[in-house]
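PROTOCOL LOG
Step 1. Enter all chains and additional molecules of the complex.
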Amino acid sequence: MPYIYVTRRIPEEGLKLLKERGWDIYIHEDELPPSREELLRRVQGADAILSLLTDKIDKEVFDAAGENLKIVANYAVGYDNIDIDEATKRGIIVTNTPGVLTDTTADFGWALLMAIARRVVEADQYARSGQWKTWGPMLMLGTDVHGKTLGIIGFGRIGRTVAKRAKGFDMNVLYYDPIKADEETERQLNAKQADLDTLLKESDFIVICAKLTPENRHLLNKEAFKKMKNSAYLINIARGPIVDEEALVWALKNGEIKGAGLDVFEHEPKIHPELIKMDNVVLTPHIGSASEETRGKMAQMAASSIVAVLTGKIPENIVNPEVLKK
Ligand code: DGY
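Step 2. Run joint prediction.
Step 3. Record the structure below.
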């Protein structure tokens, strides 16, 4: 009987697809991820792993799992936690959960953007604290969003959906991505491809939507922050290491940029202690895709991929399609 290791409890919509097969399933029930030691122990003999972005799935894990392992279904669209080359070499299929979380994540990018521009979190704390005495002409002045320039780094599904929402705010959109969108898409989204320097210099808001690659680690470094407008805001809903967090702290302290809305961090779940002290940042614990509806769909998608592979079918959303040629 196939053995499936699920590295954390995911919504029941997904688990039921596995349970109804009567397979041997082990679900790591703790709120925290399995320790490395436990991960290496529990993967032994697994036919499938349903992993999370908090699990590092590498050569050592594949070795520990052994010959049976056929699929790693990652419960995320990003898969930088998995050594894809190693999986491919061993003929192991890796899948992710794209599409179902696009709108939810783009919505959250906007939630952060609006929150930081209009000081929603600061104002909420002020209102609750009893400091509010009267309506004030200068009270909690923020920055307008409408009519500004939005720079999007990574113009894939999520980036384009962030741009779509910008239309309602009459914004100009610049995007930085090696792949140029077709003319119709650019026209519809009022978006223009730009080089990184232009985007950094001209944007009032920059939203990072790119997947993490070795090439874009620390793409936003000191040099990049120096090029941004002093009045600009940075929003990151992608992966923390795309931003050099030390450089971001420097930029915020020195007025190189005005603020930041961050859902992801360089060393999650650690947040740079200086960021925690700042009023001009909004910090959230990597919840971009965290709606009940979307997390349920992600669970179904990841479980369906496992069902497909273990019943001899080809799953959707293979991130290493080369593996099929093996
Ligand atoms: C992802 O899917 O990569 C997000 O970061 C979590 O939903």
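Step 4. Note key features.
Residues 3-98+292-325 form a domain with the Rossmann fold fold (CATH 3.40.50.720).
The radius of gyration is 21 Å.
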